[in-house]
Amino acid sequence: MTGDLSSSAIHALLADGTTVRVRAVEPEDRDQLHRLYAQMSPENLRMRFFAVSPRSAALAADHACTPSGPGHRALAAELQGRIIGLAEYDACDERGSAELAVAVADGQHHRGVGTLLVEHLASAARADGITLFLADALSENAEVLRLFSDLGLRVTRRTDGPETRCTIALDQDDAYLRAVEERGRTADLASMEPLFRPRSVAVVGAGRRPGSVGRAVLRHLRTSGFTGRLFAVNPHAHALLGVPSYPAVAALPFPPDLVVVATPATAVPTVAEEAGEAGVHAMVVLSAGLDPVQAQALLTACRTHGIRLVGPNCLGVANTDPALRMDATFAAGHPRPGTAGIGVQSGGVGIGLLEGLARLGIGVSTFASLGDKYDVSGNDMLQWWENDGTTDLALLHLESFGNPRAFSRTARRVTRRMPLLTVDAGRTDAGRRAAASHSAAAATGTLTRQALFIQAGITATRSVGELLEAAALFHAQPLPAGTRVAVVTNAGGAGVLAADACVEAGLVLPALTSDLVGDLLAVLPDGAAVGNPVDVTAAVAEDELGACLDRLTAHRGVDAVVVALVPTAVAAATGDDLVRAVTRGPAARRSPVALVRLEQDASVRLLPAAEGGEIPSYAQPHAAARALAHAARRTAWLARPPGTRRTPEGIDPPRARAVADQWLTGHPDGGWPGPRTCAELLGCYGIPQSPWAWAETEDDAVRAAEHLGGSDGRVVLKAHWPGLVHKSEQHAVRLDLLGEAQVRSAYQDLRTRFEGLMTGVVVQPLAERGTELLAGIVQDQVFGPLIIFGLGGTATEVFADRAARLAPLTDLDVHDLIASPRCAPLLFGASGADPVDLDGLEQLLHRLSGMAENVPQLAEADLNPVLATPGGLTVLDARLRLLPPRPHDPYLRRLR
């Protein structure tokens, strides 16, 4: 069985948002499965067994309870302890194929039970080496035929009289993943309705003491004008703040859609169980300090009863929809209605974002403080905002990722429709430790998170302040067409600061065209310097500055304008309002405008514009430049096609997996294989390697050197022993050896220095000159395989010049990997030199990506150095680490 179902059950959502438990069938389920079939209508039995046959049903129930193995798997869908669906396969004589059977209880059809089971069964089958499902159905059984055809897998049918034979290919391609995502999104949205659009809310733990958290939430719900029914749960009061109070959730007049819990940690599991038994479907747990036993009891109650959970240890949730007006938080004030969605783990960050957006005048659509994130996650929030019909700007602050690959696919889709801004939290070791401690989640490296953000089109900022600065621009201004910025100022020094800030942010200050220069000189006062920056001088009048901006924002050679203004006595004397000149006409402007006022007290403000809209005003030019750079990067990302995955020719994934399995048979704990195994694995993916020979004696080394020496006879000796990773650091490499005497001397030196360790040496010809690169794979425990590329050789750790992307790589990801490191100019031909073999380099990265995806035993690969020359690429040294695979399908639908 896959790692997802072998040790524990999985909880997942049906199409209507109901939570079910998917698990392997056990022998103890025999009675339940007999009842499943016994309670089926004669018509459903006929559709399942092609005849109304109680005996066939009984035999099928018994067979499903057969112990699982690679040739037979059976999965059950369980709803509150009752099995409501069964899917199983039995391997056929034909290698790689299996017979599929599906049964769903009467009354449970059209909820996606069968589809969910087949998804999970297909995942288990792939791990067992099954590539095809075969299924027979009556040709009149439209429901099961539609189930197969709607899976998103390739299905072929052959009809023979009253029966239809379906062949289902289990390839997990993009079409299938899109179908799974769409089913997941439908189910997720249905399950989140009670959380974000509740018709009734009960606050458990609302105290009579003014300072209690529960009382604060109850007050917020009342004063926000919540349009639904509101209850308090407190055994010591009949009413609180004018809200009727009941002694327990079970005593409420009807089950509320949402329960907000603010009790001591010890009481939380009991409240959750009571709410579940009452029929509650959503819960927000504000309480903190749950110990592991209490935490597990809370999650078990929610899963058993199908409750979607926010928290624990959170600030609450809010939905400002005027038809609902729900503020179930204990923040200082109510969020104003608007179109910005906020999702955070930290309540403190949530308060900071709410107050920051309020100062800017940006309203909020929905807010969720996810806290310890037992259930509802950033992925859920993205799907909600994508479909709520209101949100057009998303702000996320996540300290951990539960399912990064699913998050990445969702984010790539959502960011095509709206900007998604985040804070790249945990960039340092100290920050990662704090994040892991705070959220009880695995800390993730900076390179990995940045790869996720870049590939998914997420705007990653370095602080909450920078996030708000960027949000102001995204909210108020159109995206720039590119990176070309014109700086306008009434003070030369302010213009210099703005110009420096733009260039440092990666923007470009182009020379203005002659026609634009002429237009500007015609409207500006004498003495104006029309370069870039444009110094309009302190004598500029309001109308003159406005006309200048109109011309700049309309010109095709300018993508954005930064206006840096300082207050002057000249403007005060003439009554000119230069800020008004900036805000007077944004409706007619093609390009975004950002204002910089060095005397401004707040880091960013939004100024109302005369013709509608707003202009962001920044206290520092670096803030304006950063925001524009973020916007320009979004423009570039939106303009990019999605990219395509390439399958290199001449690869043999089954052979690679067999080689890895064979080595792991003798090394069950995993480790670093020797040169032969490494070379064989690389050979399965057509990765070019320098010729080499293995030598266990001095004479062997001499003979290998004579054979491999090449035109000048020079060779390299590399010591080897199990576990040796960094040869250069251990001084285990001898270079530039010529002739028998030098080879013997080098071998003796290595043998003497590493006596008791060294098992042999690798002999290679001395490589030609070229650029030394690093290419590698790291299997991140949370994010999956990561492809790393950059400067290699002995300088790799010194300069740390590398980039990373999450596998699988598209052609665009590969291009980005090559172009991102600082050493990229060397590859493309710096200072008139010939470029290296870029096609070969692209091929290498595609082959590594395939290897990372297809060989689950591969935990790490370090190809360093990879010698790149105009004539080709050669791997000079490779280290691979293998571990027993832990099968895990990152795209399988399941709750956290």
Write a concise keyword list for the protein shown above.
39 strands; eight-stranded mixed beta sheet; seven-stranded mixed beta sheet; flat; 29 helices; alpha/beta
Please characterize this protein's 3D structure.
Residues 1-7 and 430-444 have low confidence and may be disordered. It contains 29 helices and 39 strands. Helix 8 packs parallel to helix 9 and helix 12 (404-414) runs parallel beside helix 14 (446-456). Helix 4 links the parallel strand 5 (97-104) and strand 6 (132-138). An eight-stranded mixed β-sheet has the order 1-2-3-4-5-6-8-7, with helices on both faces. A seven-stranded mixed β-sheet has the order 11-12-10-9-13-14-15, with helices on both faces. By secondary structure, the chain is α/β, with parallel strands linked by helices.
- Major sheet characteristics: 8 strands, mixed
Number of strands: 39
What proportion of the residues is helical, as a percent range? 25-40%
> How widely separated are the two ends?
19 Å
Instruction: State the strand order across the main sheet.
Output: 1-2-3-4-5-6-8-7
In short:
With 896 residues, the chain is an alpha/beta fold.
Describe the secondary structure blueprint for this structure.
Elements: E1 10-13, E2 19-24, H1 30-38, H2 42-49, H3 54-64, E3 72-79, E4 82-91, E5 97-104, H4 113-127, E6 132-138, H5 142-149, E7 154-160, E8 163-169, H6 174-196, E9 200-204, H7 213-223, E10 229-233, E11 239-240, E12 243-246, E13 258-261, H8 268-278, E14 282-285, H9 292-305, E15 308-310, E16 316-319, E17 326-329, E18 337-344, H10 347-360, E19 364-369, H11 378-387, E20 393-397, H12 404-414, E21 420-423, H13 429-439, H14 446-456, E22 459-461, H15 464-476, E23 485-489, H16 492-504, H17 514-523, E24 529-530, E25 534-535, H18 542-554, E26 560-565, H19 569-574, H20 578-583, E27 593-597, E28 604-608, E29 614-618, H21 621-639, H22 653-666, H23 675-684, E30 693-695, H24 698-708, E31 714-720, E32 733-738, H25 739-753, E33 760-765, E34 771-780, E35 784-791, H26 796-799, E36 802-806, H27 811-819, H28 824-828, H29 838-854, E37 858-869, E38 872-875, E39 878-882
Parallel strand pairs: 5-6, 9-10, 9-13, 10-12, 13-14, 14-15, 18-19, 18-20, 20-21, 21-22, 23-25, 23-26, 26-27, 27-29
Antiparallel strand pairs: 1-2, 2-3, 3-4, 4-5, 6-8, 7-8, 11-12, 16-17, 16-19, 24-25, 28-29, 30-33, 31-32, 31-33, 34-35, 34-37, 35-36, 37-38, 37-39
Helix pairs in contact: 1-3, 6-11, 8-9, 10-15, 11-12, 12-14, 15-21, 16-21, 17-18, 22-23, 24-25, 27-29
